[in-house]
Amino acid sequence: MQTMTTPAPPRAAASGPPPALVLAERGGEEIFLTLTVAGQSCAVPVLAVRDVLATQAITRIPLAPPEVAGSLNLRGRIVTAVDLRRRLGLPPREPGEAAMNVVVEQQGELYALLADAVGEVMPLPREGFAPNPPTLDPLWREISRGVHREDGRLLIVLEVERVLAIR
Amino acid sequence: MDDLLADFLTETHEGLIALDAALLRLERAPDDRPTLSEIFRLVHTIKGTCGFLGLARLEKVAHAAENVLGRYRDGTLAVTQDGISLILRALDAIRAIVAGLEASGAEPPGDDAALIAALDAAAEGEAPAAARAAPPAAEDAAPEAGGAAAPAPEAAASGPAPSPAAAAAGPTAAGPAAGGAPQTIRVSVDVLEDLMMLVSELVLTRNQLLQLARAQGDSALTVPLQRLSHITSDLQEGVMKTRMQPIGNAWAKLPRLVRDLGLELGKKIALEMRGAETELDRQVLELIRDPLTHMVRNSADHGIETPEERRAAGKPETGRITLSACHEGGQIVLEIGDDGRGLPVERIRAKALAQGLATEAELAQMSEREVLRFIFRPGFSTASRVTAVSGRGVGMDVVRANVERIGGTIDLRSREGQGTTFTIKIPLTLAIVSALIVEAAGERFAIPQIGVVELVRVGAGTDHQAPRVERIKDAPVLRLRDRLLPLVSLADLLRLERPRGTDAAAEERFVVVTQVGARVFGIIVDRVFDTEEIVVKPVAPILRHVTMFSGNTILGDGSVIMILDPNGIARATGVAGDGAGEESGSAGAAEDAAGLAATAALRSDAKTAMLLFRAGGEATPKAVPLGLVARLEDIPRERIELSGGVPVVQYRGRLMPLVPLSAGGWPAETAHGGGRQAVLVFNDRDRAMGLMVDEILDVVEEPLRIERGPAQRPGYLGSAVLQGRVTDVIDTAWWLRQAGEDWFAAPPAGAEGGARHAVGPRLLLVEDSAFFQHLVVPALAAAGYAVTAVGSPLQALKLREAGAMFEAIVSDIEMPEMDGFAFAQAVRGGGPWARLPMIALTARADPADAARGRAAGFTDYVGKYDREALLASLRECLAPPVALAAADPPGEEGHAA
């Protein structure tokens, strides 16, 4: 199937004006979107993000891997939702607790990463990066590109491709 | 201008532009194999197409260029700049000819001998010297040689002046382009895709608006909103339609291709196409068009033998290529088969070894099937000689690549001496299917209607009319009429949690009776909603391993819903086929009985039992052959319910549609009036429908002579005089169709050999070739005949002695022991068969033979194997067509596959 592959500029609805694409990689820093998953701060490269949506009606998919929360309709396209809490082995969301959808595209398919909250779009300087500590949970090591040190918090930088490599 | 030609011109223009770019790329990187292959294929396509359009000049140039490219591709000739220049000049020559073609509709005269000689010399490896000699000639053919991708009108104006037509067109260079402007335009699929997406959004927005308006009760908005709603629906439908095309569009050129190939190769080839109406996504269609053409061409060129070879092999002289398409189990299945010589397994093995594709040890371990699959490798061709048609090893690899590109699979089976069949399965992907929306444990799912046989309401404890789900140990089963249907619970299967407070056992539920191949099983669901046309979208790759779903879709209300795959469910539950097989056996026996009863009514010379009744408030009595009626019922009117506007009645555990035999439909208010309704019940396999009549009069047994009235009324065959009164004989087939079901589709797969309809004229086929029997019997059975085949006239005569009776005899002529002529004389000589229509089926259909056949007693003489002619002849012989099948011309053969 041929699907629409034109990469749309990210629409970061939750975080003010969308960053210009030219800013996405500037000098020694890359631009990320920060998320919170069960209290843990994470970051995904903003270039991978196509959309950020508020809570959506999600259809459960029986027999799907537990990480797959279901599918939702994004303007006529079917988006598969992956719950980052489950993907990261964190406790499930309380019933009724809203989730944000960070929509990413991989090989022409759209996926929504469910996070508790979406933070901001920000550049992260290269020097702040550290490789995954060897003691990190193997599940996390597998899907994280590394850790970014910030004042007061540590950001887990998620590798979208690996997050979606379920099974 | 010929449509074919216009298409060719469009394609060739695109091809030429692509070629220019590719050649320049090749010049920079002479070792670029993919580019080389691409160039080769493009030229091959141009050549192939003009070959069958009869464009000799173009074909010669393209063929010569292809020869050079072939050497490049095989690595036996080094790519040089001179060589590329030569190919480019050949392209310019092609372009000039194409421009002339566009202007005048015919190839402009001209001499390409020098260019072709240069190309041939280059192919022989003498490139430099010959190339220098070539330019003047090439210049001559193509004055615009320098300009890459010269626009066509320009070339036409300045190009081949000698053609008067071209000269006339010259001054108004825009003229031919405008005049020949096609009624269609090419639109990028991306644009359609975007449109589709926008329309989906529009639908959702519309729905939201409608909901808001309803909530507010604001009448000022109602009218414009309704208009918006209608326009949106129409728009949605229109956009959907832009993507769908019947596969017949891709086949349109094939009959001509086959005909021309037959002439060119000196072969007799018949092309049979089934299921041309099967709709495919436009994009899918485009992608399989060329592969299909390639495959048909291959079949004609390599598969079908010459008439002499076929005669020697004991086959009919005319080879057959069969194309069929159908939706099956959520896929589109295409079959391209021939009854030719089959693939030479040993040659393929040897070639694979020679090309180093496998070692001897590996080959020894491979099954024949695996060996055959080598033909899908690039550059693999077993044709020992290169013809203008094929044999260059381009084709099957392209076919495979194209099929796989759209997520399909290709497979083949081949028996040496018997033919080759390719099966292409294309996933539904974008195809629109009709699906049943069901609910289990609070979740909705779609079941493709294609596999659904019927719906049965089960379970509510108090309702004794509805059948109940019973359990054998833990396995749920349903007694459905006389069979025991294995059941699977959708909620259990998908491990859905039931909402608290619902008791699974006590509730009233539904069983979706589903057929997969020969297996029939029921899926238990909680609710059944509606059927909806859905656009199937593939599931995300991370869900591909869940085989229970064939895709997902977005419903009209904007929700995402999973599409169940009956195949996957059957596999997952291990619903075995053994039980189902037995059932179909017993059902077959029942059908035979019904068939005998019904066919007794068919012979125009015999007495026919007719049921007389009155209907539609008309005084004229109506009649129907009694053999067709399964039962007569008298139903209390209050039991008749309306379902989707159609009157139905719960009958033997299922809903039976009722069709009023009157012009005005069925007045719903009569339901409340009490009283009873007379119904004629018709049965076929496991379907039933009722014909509502006013009053049943009598059963009479009289010879039936139907006169077709001057004004043919739909639903009536004509009039006959029964019991001294003019009586309207109803066309049962027409009324059955009013019930909405396809009664004439052949039974689904698995009914091999027993593909008999409940009603249908009995035919005796006398044919010594088992192969031919296999060919004819299913075709006739699909058309509704009950066929008995015997291997020789002597066997046939034994049947006569045993008292067997038929409505017609179809016989071969050339048979050992006793030939068709002698057989016909024996039949006509006396006995119960003496007056039966006899149709001779023969490869020798010359007038002298036909005359001899008629003299021997044959009613008609049909060429072997002209299916249409045979069916037409049978229809004629068996008139008046009282029976279902005879009254219904076999236009439904698409379902027979």
User: Beta fraction of the residues of chain B?
Assistant: 15-25%
Beta-strand percentage of chain A?
A: 35-45%
Outline of chain B: globular
Which percent range fits the helix content of chain A?
under 10%
Oligomer description: heterodimer
For the structure shown, list the relevant keywords.
heterodimer; A: 167 residues; mainly beta; OB fold (Dihydrolipoamide Acetyltransferase, E2P); five-stranded mixed β-sheet; 3 helices; globular; disordered N terminus; B: 897 residues; alpha/beta; Four Helix Bundle (Hemerythrin (Met), subunit A); six-stranded mixed β-sheet; 30 helices; 24% strand; disordered C terminus; histidine kinase (chain B); kinase (chain B); transferase (chain B); two-component regulatory system (chain B)
Indicate the topology.
The complex is a heterodimer of chains A (167) and B (897).
Chain A: E1 25-26, E2 29-37, E3 40-45, E4 49-53, E5 68-74, E6 77-83, H1 84-87, E7 100-106, E8 109-115, E9 117-125, E10 129-130, H2 138-143, E11 144-150, E12 153-158, H3 160-163
Parallel strand pairs in A: 3-12, 6-8
Antiparallel strand pairs in A: 1-2, 2-3, 2-9, 4-7, 5-6, 7-8, 10-11, 11-12
Chain B: H1 3-28, H2 33-53, H3 56-74, H4 81-104, H5 113-123, H6 127-133, H7 135-141, H8 152-158, H9 164-169, H10 174-179, H11 189-216, H12 219-243, E1 244-246, H13 248-251, H14 254-265, E2 269-274, E3 279-281, H15 282-303, H16 307-312, E4 319-328, E5 331-338, H17 345-354, H18 360-365, H19 368-372, H20 396-405, E6 409-415, E7 419-427, E8 432-440, E9 443-448, E10 452-458, E11 469-472, E12 475-480, E13 483-489, H21 490-493, E14 509-516, E15 519-525, E16 527-535, E17 549-554, E18 560-564, H22 566-573, H23 578-599, E19 607-614, E20 622-625, E21 631-636, E22 641-643, E23 646-651, E24 654-660, E25 676-684, E26 687-693, E27 695-703, E28 716-722, E29 725-730, H24 732-738, E30 762-766, H25 770-782, E31 786-790, H26 793-801, E32 808-812, H27 820-828, E33 838-842, H28 847-856, E34 860-863, H29 867-877, H30 884-887
Parallel strand pairs in B: 2-4, 9-18, 13-15, 20-29, 24-26, 30-31, 30-32, 32-33, 33-34
Antiparallel strand pairs in B: 1-3, 4-5, 5-7, 6-7, 8-9, 8-16, 10-14, 11-12, 12-13, 14-15, 17-18, 19-20, 19-27, 21-25, 22-23, 23-24, 25-26, 28-29
Helix pairs in contact in B: 1-2, 1-4, 2-3, 3-4, 3-5, 4-5, 4-7, 4-8, 5-6, 11-12, 14-15, 15-20
